[in-house]
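Lab notebook, bench 4. The sequencing result for the construct came back, and we need a structural model before the next group meeting so we can plan mutations. Quick request posted to the team channel:

Model the 3D structure of this chain.
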Amino acid sequence: MNNEVKVLRAAMGWSQEELAKNLGVSRQAVNAIERGKHDPSLQLAFAMSEVFEKSIEAIFNPEIQADSHYGKTLRSTTQGNADWNVSLRALTTAG
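Done. Here's the predicted structure in token form:
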């Protein structure tokens, strides 16, 4: 998942270690989230929202791939909202 954690952390003037202490996680966890190697739990995402004083949507940009079984896709828009497209054909032909 793309995110703005590194940018927001730098804007606060914090090291990864300082952010980790504020969140109650390891520096390695912060590094993995910044690099997109790990997605935070919902609880950690809310904690980041509080620490940065930003909405979760302003911090994280989900990239969900199409679900071939149900034909769902999630597209981010410039407003940070998402639109669901559901293929009725995929739903009616499944199973």
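The longest strand covers residues 73-76.
Will bring this to the meeting.
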